[in-house]
Each structure stands twice: as C-alpha cells, then as structure tokens.
Specification:
Layout lengths: L1 H10 L4 E3 L5 E2 L10 E2 L6 E5 L7 E4 L14 H25 L5 E7 L8 E5 L7 E5 L3 E3 L2 E3 L3 E5 L2 E9 L14 E6 H9 L8 E6 L7 H41 L17 H8 L1 E2 L6 E2 L10
Helix pairs in contact: 2-3
Length: 302
Amino acid sequence: MEDTIQYHDLATDHGAYDAETGEYSLPQYAIKSRNYTCPQCFQKLILKKGNIKRHHFAHYSQEISCEFYNINNESQYNKIHEGLLHKTAKIMLKKILEESVGKKIYISRDCATNQCNNYDLVVLHNVDENTLFQLEHTLKFENRNIRPDLAWLQNNEIKYIFEIYDTSKTKEYNRPNDVEWFEFKAFDLIKNFKEGKFENKDEIQFNCMRDIIKCQDCIREERRRTGYRIEKEQKRKLEEEAEQKRIEEEVIKYRTTCQKCHRTKANNNYPSCYQCTMAEKTNKCRECHKPTKYTYCWDHRL
C-alpha cells in the first residue's frame, strides 16, 4: 500500500516550463511571480501553491482540450495518471540531459541473469553545442516509422535512443540494433529528480532497465555450463554407440555360433551346427551308444 501512495504522490508532480528560462520546474519548487507554460500545449499556466491543497499547475481555462494537468477528481486522476507520469518523466529526462553540459553521463545496466550483483557501466558522449535532444524523433526501422521517447542527435545524426516505461517495457525487436539505446523507469527517474540526484554534480548516472545485457562473469559461467552440457551429451552419445555396437556384436556371435557345442556354424539359419543337428536326428548304437541311423553303428553291425 505504501508503494501505491508513493507512486501517486510522484504522479501528481507534473512540472512546467519557465517561460523566460525554459527550465523545467516542479510545482513545489516553482515561484509564483514567474510565468510557466504547459509542456504539451505550451499554453500559459497558473501556479496553485497555497497552504491547504497540494501544489500544482493548472490551465487558466477548463475549456482547453489539453489534459496534461486535468486531475480534477480522484476517479479521473486514476484513469490518466499513468500516461501523465510517462510524459513528465521523458520531459524531465530531456531537461536533465540538456543541462548536463560539462558533466560525465554514466548509465549502469544490471546483469540480466539476476544471479549476481554485477553491472555494466556505459559512458556516454559529452553534451556539447552540436548535441540536440528531440522528443519522439521519427526514424526509419525495417521499412516503418518508429518514434522513441527521446533521441540524442549529434551533428544531426542519431547517437543514442532513450525510452521511458511506466507499466510495460519496450520490445527489443521494435528498436534497431545498430543504435545504442537505453530504457529508464519513469517512477525511478522522477524519484531521483525530486531527491536532487541530478543537481550540482560533476556526473550523472542513470539505471538502464533493459534485461538482455549479461555481465562477463555470467557469460563465462554460461559458456562453462554450456560446455559441460555439450561434453555430457557427447559422452552419452558415445556410450549409446558403444552399447549399440556391443549388442550388434552379440547378435552376430549368436547367429554364427552353435548353441550346444559353441563351434562356428556354416549356416546361420539354425541355432545348432550341422553335427549337433544330425546327432539329434540319429539313433544311438545299442552297443557303444554312438550316433547312428541304424540300430547298431558301423563297427557293430556285423
């Protein structure tokens, strides 16, 4: 329940642009004597900063179709707060990056395996006079137009792509592989902004939430396990082949060996050799009990 309350508290903090400086400001930090414009429709806003209600911006007229600050009641607020959170976060990100001239920008990416505490740290290009940040910049990808939340243009060329997600992440197959791109959670971005983690520092750090990056330790461990599985599978196949060969040899031996005298047979169609087969078909001599076709063998017939 605490997370839900905190989530809603962040969602209501939709800021506005200072009409003179162009800086993005949250209502609790805004000054009533200054003029502010809506980030969506660019209309002039009124800052409501009293002692009873929560500080917030609002349009002068309710007839304006823009719904960026349209949170008049709780039921209506619940319907639109997720989209507003996303809009606020990407505008915040644009302002943070535009004001990062002379600062180091780092992006940490946790290992996607969730089996370790390792992370990868990416150092971005420095922001300079040739850097431009554009919201929902249109670019071609697989014969269709895509519009990432924020594009970093360096000398009018795409350098990085940034995505903001609130409830669902961007599908990996919907973004190009030849451009490095990152994805941030809207809730965390706004929370860190409110806590002043992007102010008055020589460096800025974001946390990328893409879940396809693996650390080198996990890659090596995965290769080791894969090698072990391959080795185990090869060993199993060799054992199966050896067992199959042994069975075939036993079959051949059974077919070529007499089951009575164990001598090699001339004909594999019978279980016994010719001599043993003939011995079964003849009588025994009444005198010496040798096999014979007659009552007596050849030696005792006379």
